[in-house]
């Protein structure tokens, strides 16, 4: 049987040097005069926001002048017309010194929404992660070839290199704490990343209407998230890390693969067995519709909001950002691929089809179990597990970060003394105290007292919930991610699934450490 050719990075718009980042610095502004109104609005964005005049320039309905070209560009890139990881991380950087490296000592952002250095740092740490991880792609492809050559010695060497790179990713990730203040991130930056899916409480029950696109129907598109990083997906695929819907833990067979039997229930709604087997890694995506991307959703009528990625009813054959991908794969993680540029998504599909490292190491491990072990097999298992362990450590640190940057901020609430000012919150507090001054004086409330320029859109201090991350139920803190996930259980499971992908599993000690919340 002839083997499928290995992917060639450049065929998928991936640079061997810069990975998923473009090899050239991204354009700072669009040169054509046609785009001048966009560029102009964006140049004045922070001023317009401060002066509470942004709504005079930007409506909630996306006008055709924006929606049509945006959709066209998105179609060309095979990405979604919404703020994405690609837009704010991969294509939003410049080098301070042109001959210097793509690292945190030499990167700046092209654009931010809040105008804060915290937001820049938030994006740039992730850009630096993409840059640091770039060499891992060729190493993964070489490893796959070494498996095909039945060359465990070469593979061991290559895996050592990969482990070193993942360690570096963790080191860069930890630098987030240096210059991105959790308070600023949560209250001032994150609202812009929210997208318009699951945003009923923020006043967008149907998403946003794109005038002139698909008969002006509403689109519900998820917010930007580094869960859209092709790099992390590539690592999962390479090492056979399988993700399942939250609360859905399939039994593994001897080779460590899911055999399709569901262990427990899915969010209390599904029980019994999952339809479709989860053989091999992320095969849900492999069978997705890489080219259907934008079209899948663009043509769809607005459907009922769905807030849960754990619901088995979503595990149907639907293949668009609005639905799951028809397997026991984690729907949220699979859905995030529709928010990647098409070539990168296609690369992941191709990679999935040729991934063989885990099977090779598992087979060697079986040899050992049957009394045919060797020092080389031991080394191979060890270094493979070390790579997986580093991915798990990455997720440990990430959970700590999410706890600090989201859960704790959501629980604490906004702080007026922190330098911010929430007009709507003040107006509501005034109501609570029975001192609605403007009403008492018979005056019309001024523009700042009715929330036209809320600087804390995530939560109104004394009022009804209004936002993204918040307590969903009294006494039960459920904080959701921009993608709508019940994020801590989702992230913990993702971490645990990584740990369980080791050939020789080790206990997940990190749970206590990472449960800061
Ligand atoms: C302050 C920093 C960060 C915060 C607050 C944060 C927040 C989140 C949240 C809330 C999710 C859940 C998905 C959702 O519902 O939106 C998520 C997922 C994810 N994030 Fe981050 N993130 C941060 C930094 C990063 C960085 C730098 C990376 C590096 C690429 C990253 C990679 C991921 C990945 C891969 C997932 C999917 C879950 C998984 O694979 O385990 N995040 N993040």
Question: What this model shows, in words?
Answer:
This is Indoleamine 2,3-dioxygenase. GO terms for molecular function: heme binding; indoleamine 2,3-dioxygenase activity; metal ion binding. With 517 residues, the protein is an all-alpha fold. The chain has two domains: 9-249 and 335-408 and 488-514, Methane Monooxygenase Hydroxylase, Chain G, domain 1 (Up-down Bundle), CATH 1.20.58; 423-481, no CATH class. 44% of the residues lie in helices and 2% in strands. It starts with 35 loop residues before the first helix and ends with a helix. The protein has 21 helices and four strands. A two-stranded antiparallel sheet has the order 1-2. It has a two-stranded antiparallel sheet with strand order 3-4. The model is unreliable at 253-319, 322-326, 418-476 and 510-517 (pLDDT under 50). Bound molecules: protoporphyrin IX containing FE. The site of protoporphyrin IX containing FE has 25 residues, from helix 6, helix 17 and helix 20.
């Amino acid at each position: 049987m002839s083997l499928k050719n290995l992917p060639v990075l450049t065929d998928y718009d991936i640079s061997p040097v810069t990975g998923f980042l473009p090899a050239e610095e991204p354009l700072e502004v669009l040169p054509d005069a046609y785009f001048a109104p966009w560029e102009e609005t964006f140049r004045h964005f922070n001023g317009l926001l401060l002066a509470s005049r942004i709504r005079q320039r930007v409506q909630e309905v996306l006008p055709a002048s924006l929606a049509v070209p945006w959709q066209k560009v998105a179609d060309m890139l095979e990405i979604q017309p919404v703020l994405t990881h690609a837009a704010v991380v991969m294509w939003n950087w410049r080098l301070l010194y042109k001959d210097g490296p793509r690292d945190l000592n030499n990167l700046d952002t092209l654009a931010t929404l809040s105008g804060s250095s915290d937001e820049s740092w938030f994006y740039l740490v992730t850009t630096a992660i993409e840059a640091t991880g770039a060499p891992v792609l060729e190493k993964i492809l070489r490893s796959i070839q070494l498996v095909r050559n039945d060359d465990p010695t070469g593979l061991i060497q290559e895996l050592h290199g990969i482990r070193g790179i993942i360690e570096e990713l963790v080191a860069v990730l930890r630098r987030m704490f240096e210059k991105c203040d959790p308070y600023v991130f949560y209250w001032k930056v994150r609202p812009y990343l929210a997208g318009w899916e699951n945003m009923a409480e923020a006043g967008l029950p149907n998403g946003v209407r794109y005038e002139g696109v698909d008969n002006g129907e509403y689109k519900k598109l998820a917010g930007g998230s580094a869960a859209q990083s092709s790099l992390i997906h590539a690592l999962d695929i390479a090492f056979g890390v399988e993700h399942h819907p939250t609360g859905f833990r399939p039994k593994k067979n001897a080779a460590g693969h899911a055999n399709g039997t569901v262990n427990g229930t899915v969010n209390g709604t599904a029980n019994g067995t999952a339809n479709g087997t989860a053989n091999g890694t992320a095969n849900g995506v492999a069978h997705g519709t890489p080219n259907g991307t934008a079209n899948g959703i663009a043509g769809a009528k607005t459907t009922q909001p769905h807030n849960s990625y754990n619901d088995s009813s979503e595990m149907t054959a639907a293949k668009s950002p609005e639905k799951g991908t028809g397997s026991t794969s984690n729907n949220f993680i699979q859905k995030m691929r529709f928010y990647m540029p098409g070539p990168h998504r296609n690369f992941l599909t191709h990679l999935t089809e040729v991934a063989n490292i885990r099977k090779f190491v598992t087979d060697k491990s079986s040899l050992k179990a049957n009394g045919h072990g060797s020092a080389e097999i031991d080394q191979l298992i060890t270094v493979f597990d070390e790579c997986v362990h580093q991915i798990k450590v990455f997720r440990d640190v990430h959970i700590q970060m999410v706890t600090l940057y989201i859960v704790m901020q959501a629980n604490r609430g906004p702080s007026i003394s922190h330098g911010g000012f929430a007009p709507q919150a003040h107006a509501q507090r005034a109501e609570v105290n029975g001192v609605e001054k403007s009403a008492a004086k018979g005056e019309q409330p001024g523009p700042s007292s009715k929330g036209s320029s809320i600087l804390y859109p995530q939560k109104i201090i004394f009022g009804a919930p209004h936002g993204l991350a918040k307590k969903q139920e009294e006494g039960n803190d459920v904080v959701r991610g921009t993608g709508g996930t019940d994020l801590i259980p989702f992230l913990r499971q993702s971490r645990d699934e990584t740990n369980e992908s080791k050939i020789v599993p080790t206990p997940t000690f990190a749970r206590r450490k990472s449960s800061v919340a």
